Amino acid sequence: MNHLALIGPPDAVASRIGAIQGVYRIGKGDVAGVAVSFDPGDERRRQNLLAWFERGAEPGATLLVDDWKYCSESDPGLADTVRWIAARVWNVRVIVTARSVDELPERMPLRIEVLDFLALHGLRRFTKALAWKGRWWKVPVGVGADGRPVVAELTHFADGKWRTGSHLSVTTPDAFRSLVLGLMTTHSPKLFQAVFIDAHDSGVFEGLDQAPHVVAHHRHAARDPQGIAELLAAESERRLDVVGNTWTIFDHRGFDQVLPQLLVCVSGFADIGEPAFAAISADVGKSGMQLLLDGQSELTDLLVDDCAAPANLDEMARSLPLLMREEEPAPDFFALHEMPNRHAWRPRPVRLQYRAPVGVDEFGQPVEVDLKSKHLQDGMGPHGEIVAPDERRAEGVRAVVLGQMARHSPTELEVVLIDFHGNGVFAGIDGAPHVRHGIVDLLEDHEQRARTLAHNNFRTIWDYRAAGLVLPELLICVDGVHALLEERPEFREVLQTLATAGRTYGQHLLLSDTTPSEHGSYRLELTDEGWTRRIGRSVERFALPTDLNDVVWSLPVAMSSS
Fold first, then answer.
1. Residue 440 confidence (pLDDT)
2. What gap in Å lies between CA 250 and CA 156, rounded to an integer?
3. pLDDT score for 344
4. Spatial CA neighbour of 4 closest among 85, 83, 113
5. What angle do CA 493, 494, 498 make, to 5 degrees?
6. Rounded to an integer, what distance in angstroms lies between the CA atom of residue 362 and that of residue 532?
7. By the 8 A CB rule, do 512 and 506 touch?
8. What's the average model confidence in pLDDT over 498-504?
9. Contact residues for 292 (Cβ-Cβ < 8 A; gap 6+)
10. What are 354-373's pLDDT values in tens digits?
11. How many CB atoms lie within 10 A of CB 33?
12. Distance (Å, whole) CA 78 – CA 57
C-alpha cells in the first residue's frame, strides 16, 4: 500500500486524515474520525496495537503515528517497529505526521505530502527573527513524483574549491513561486534581494512583489529586451566594482558585507530571449547575480525537478510578504543571546569565541561584535570604539561588555575599566567577576604576555590556546579617552603599544567618547537615526535589547555568585 507522510500543523493534518477510513492512531489527545487512539505514554496499549499491525491487523487498516517527533521520543524503538510494518505487512497502510520534513524517520518508504508551506522550511510560524536564518546553499521547493523532497541547490563548486552561484531553470509556475517565496521566507533582504522580470503581465509574481526583498518589477519586458539587458549589465558592473579582486562574492562576504545575492527571476523567458541575459550569466561567481528562468536554457547550470508545491502556497504568497514588512519589537537581553535567563559559559568553536550580538537590525537579525582580529581569526577587531554623548555611552558599553561576559568565563575574558570622567559609565558592570580591580599596569601586562608566549615558543595567543594552555583575553574599556590623553599624555604610549601589538597577545581596546578615536577597527555610534555598527564600508543600524538597564545590575551579581 501507499505509505504516507503528512507535513503540516495539526489542523491541516486532521482535515486531511478525516477522509481516511479505518485509522488506528498513536498520538496525543483525540482526533475526530479516528477509530482508535492511544496516547504514546500508554505503553501497554501502544505495544498491543503495534503487535496487532505486525501480525497483519485487518486488511485495509491504517496505522497513524501522529506527530512523529513526540511519539518517537516516548518510544525509542518505534522507528524500527514502524519501519518493519511498512516494509513487510502488505495489506496495511502507515501514515506518519510531522511539523517539518526533517522530523521524519529515516529509511522509511513514505510518500511525502506537504500541507503547509512553512512546514516545508521547518517553521511553525513566521517571525523575521526566527525565520531569516537561512544560508545561501539550498532551499526546498516541494515534493517530487517519487514522494521525496525536491531541493534547489543555489551554489556549486565550479573547480572543486571555490563556491560559486548557480543559474536555475524551473519549468512549473508553482515550483517557480515556491522557490522564490522560500528564499524570501528564510533569508533577510540583507542577504537576498530579487528583480522580477515578466515578459508580459502574467501575474506569476502576484503577492510576491509585496515582499521587502523586491528591488524592481519589470512588466511587459518582451517589448524592450535590450533595455532589460542594459539594466542588468549596469548592475553587474556596479557589483563587480564593489567586490574587487576577490575570487567570488562568497569570499567577499564577512562582517563588512555590502552586497546581498540578487536573483533575477524571469517569467516568459522564451519571449524575451537569451541575449538579454547573456551578459550576466558568466559573472555569477563574482557579482552575486543569479538567474531563475521559467524555461530551460544553456545559460543555466541546474534544472529544478518538477514537483508539487505545498498545498497552501498561494495563500502564503499573499500573506507572508506583507507580514515581512511588519515591524517586530527588539528582544530582551537573554532572548537576544539565546540564553534561558542566565549566563552561558561553555566551550565554543573558535569562530564563535569572543563573538556576541549587541542588538538586532531592522530585519530582526542579530548585529554582532567580534573582538577577534580580522587578520588572525576572521573577526572584526581587535579594537573598537563607542561614540555617543556622555549620557548615552553607557548603553553601547553595556551591550558590548555584558554580551561578552555572558558568554565567556573569567578564565576566558578579563576586563579593565577606566572611567576618566567618573560618570558611572561602568556602574553595574564593575561587579562582575571578570573585572580586574585596583591599578593595572597595562604595559607590564603586555610584556608579561609576550614573555609567556616566547617562553613556550608560541607566536600568538591563539597558538598558545590551541596547545591547551589558558590565557584570557583582556578587554580594556576606557571612557573619556580624549580628555585622558590631554591630561596624561604618557598614556598615549600605552594606547599605541596595545593598538599596534595587542591583537597578538589578546589585548583589546574599547574606547568611548563623544568623537571617534584613531584606533577602532569597528565602531558603535549613536546617530540621529539610532545606534549603528560601522565596519569598513558596512553600516548597520540596530536596536539595543530592551532591558539592558536591568541586566547590568542583575547579571554581574549572578555571575559573581555562580
1. 87
2. 11
3. 86
4. 113
5. 115
6. 11
7. no
8. 91
9. 167, 168, 169, 170, 176, 179, 180, 263, 264, 265, 266
10. 999 999 999 999 999 999 98
11. 13
12. 17
Residue with cell 603586555: 446
CA–CA–CA angle 26, 29, 33 (5° rounding): 75
The distance of Cα 458 from the centroid of its chain, to the nearest Å, equals 35
* Confidence check: pLDDT of 159 > 80: no
Neighbours of 206 (CB within 10 A): 12
* The C-alpha cell that represents 5 in the structure block: 507522510
What is the model's pLDDT at position 80? 94
pLDDT category at 281 given cuts 50, 70, 90 is confident
**What does the alpha-carbon distance between residue 47 and residue 75 come to, in Å, rounded to a whole number?**
10
Residue 349 cell numbers, joined: 568553536
Dump pLDDT digits (tens) for 308-320.
Answer: 999 999 999 999 9
Q: What pLDDT is recorded for position 245?
A: 67
Q: Cell 563623544 appears where?
A: 514
Which strands make up the sheet holding 214-218, listed edge to edge?
A: 214-218, 192-198, 261-267, 289-293, 168-170, 302-304
Residue 381 has what DSSP assignment?
A: B
- Residue for cell digits 528591488? 215
> What does the alpha-carbon distance between residue 467 and residue 24 come to, in Å, rounded to a whole number?
58
Identify whether the C-beta of residue 38 lies closer than 8 Å to the C-beta of residue 78: no
Q: What percentage of residues in the chain have a pLDDT greater than 90?
A: 68
* String of DSSP letters for 198-245: ESS--STTTTGGGSTTEEEEE-SGGG-HHHHHHHHHHHHHHHHHHHTT
Residue 171: pLDDT above 70? yes
